[in-house]
Amino acid sequence: MRLFIAILFAPEIIAELSAAINQLRKTAQSGNFTRIENLHLTLAFIGETNRSEAAANILKATAPPPFALELCGSGSFVRASGDIVWAGLAKNNILLNYAENLCRELRNAGFDIDGKNFSPHITLGREVTGFKNKKLDVKPQKMEVNRISLMKSERINNKLIYSEISGVNLKLLN
Known about the structure:
This protein is 25% helix and 41% strand. It is of the alpha+beta class. The strands form two sheets. Strands 2-6-5-4-7 form a five-stranded antiparallel beta sheet, with helices on one face. A hairpin with a 2-residue loop joins strand 8 (147-156) and strand 9 (159-169). Helix 2 (52-62) crosses helix 3.
């Protein structure tokens, strides 16, 4: 099964990201746009594995206390086959430290997690061409992160579907 660990978004963030995707659809020539129900922030991409229980245990063991995220800006990763257009997040040391710790613990447990620095972004479109201004009007939105999810990715009826298979509710530390 193909797994990743992610933060799912509050309705206000989903609404703003949905508006950005609609703006991207209208201004780009073509692209593969993220389905609204698939919007998330990937913290660690695990890939194909049959070790979902081990991943869930690491998720629980590394869980931070609740923290805030703020949607902030947009950008793109330039690719020859078309750009990846994304929405960004305000700098957040809690998020950066957590993602680094999570990936380290997954690697220590034998998962094949790449060693790239975590670059928090929310993918809005892939293989986007003809996007002239390279920026979207993404209004700042904040949310409290109270849950981290272990997700599976599968193709059903030619649609990419993401489903939570496990998760951890974040608790304030005493």
